Amino acid sequence: MKVDVSRETMDLLKEFQALAEKWNSRINLVSGSTLPAFWDRHISDSLQIFENAAPFSGHWADLGSGGGFPGIVLAVAFRETDLSFTLVESDQRKATFLRTAIRELSLTNAKVKCDRIERIPSLNADYVSARALAGLPVLLTFLDLHLRASGEAWLLKGRNWQAEVDEARENWAFNLETFPSKTSDEAAVLKVSEVSHV
Ligand SMILES: C[S@@+](CC[C@H](N)C(=O)[O-])C[C@H]1O[C@@H](n2cnc3c(N)ncnc32)[C@H](O)[C@@H]1O
Predict the structure, then answer these.
(1) CA atoms of 76 and 47, how far apart (whole Å)
(2) Closest CA relative to residue 130, chosen from 186, 195, 190
(3) How far apart are the first and last CA of the chain?
(4) Quick one: which residues bind S-adenosyl-L-methionine (predicted)?
(5) 159 among the known binding-site residues?
(6) Torsions phi, psi of 74, nearest 5?
(7) In a domain, 40, yes or no
(8) What is the rounded average pLDDT of the residues 118-129?
(9) Please, are residues 139 and 133 in contact by the beta-carbon 8 Å criterion?
(10) Is any ligand 1 atom within 6 A of the Cβ of residue 93?
(11) pLDDT given for residue 2 in this prediction
(12) What is the SS3 assignment for the chain?
């Protein structure tokens, strides 16, 4: 899958891939079945947000970061902007991996909060991202907590995304823009803003 990033960004992302593959034998960062297609399934997938979003400053929260998708990939891709990233991950071992990746890649724009999303004080973020964390109705409760009123969320969703949107509309009002996913014809990248309870 073609990605439009600089040579330096590619090199850092390859370094991150090597680190994630090494740690994956000890802790389950990504499903073993996805390892042969690691770059496309995880790195390119995450970079779709970088390719569609155009922010240059503010606070970005990645919720349920797991092995760093999309949080670490975005922190690398946006490292020359004034964005700062908070990666929220409740699993201690994954949080340790994320901190190790931040240190080894010399990222100065990212930090990890090892806690539950629903337990921490509002991050009041300008941007929120998430992948494979929860269905849209639950994600909207997280956005309600952590996304500021003028903010936007970037969500990588699988093939049930339209049904999730329909279900979420029963309790929430929000603006939605959708972008076709490069990883699968049925998946989508959702840009969500102006979230409110109905
Ligand atoms: C299925 S994994 C997805 C990880 C990553 N976003 C990805 O796409 O590869 C979901 C991650 O969210 C974390 N998580 C789930 N619920 C959470 C919560 N309430 N607060 C913080 N982290 C949570 C889990 O520990 C897990 O690492």
Answers:
(1) 10
(2) 190
(3) 40
(4) 64, 69, 117-118, 131
(5) no
(6) -70, -40
(7) yes
(8) 98
(9) yes
(10) no
(11) 66
(12) CCCCCCHHHHHHHHHHHHHHHHHHCCCCCCCHHHHHHHHHHHHHHHHHHHHHCCCCEEEEEEECCCCCCCHHHHHHHCCCCEEEEEEECCCHHHHHHHHHHHHHCCCCCEEEECCCCCCCCCCCEEEEEEECCCCHHHHHHHHHHHEEEEEEEEEEECCCHHHHHHHHCCCEEEEEEEEECCCCCCCEEEEEEEEEEC
Q: Tell me whether residue 72 is annotated as binding.
A: no
Q: Give percent of the chain above pLDDT 90.
A: 93
Is the CB–ligand 1 distance for residue 145 below 6 Å? Answer: no
**Position 160 in a domain:** yes
Find where tokens 């990746």 sit.
101
CATH number at residue 13: 3.40.50.150
Residue with tokens 């989508």: 188
Distances (CA, A) of 168 to 79, 114, 176, 177, 194: 33, 28, 12, 15, 14
Assess if residue 178 is contained within a domain: yes
Which token pair is 196? 């409110």
Ligand 1, atom nearest to 142 Cα: 19
Q: What is the ipTM of this complex?
A: 0.99
Is 64 annotated as belonging to a binding site?
yes
Domain that holds residue 158: 7-197
For a ligand 1 pocket test, name from 42, 89, 131 the mutation site with the most ligand atoms within 8 angstroms of its C-beta: 89
Domain for residue 79, yes or no? yes
Provide the domain count of the chain.
Answer: 1
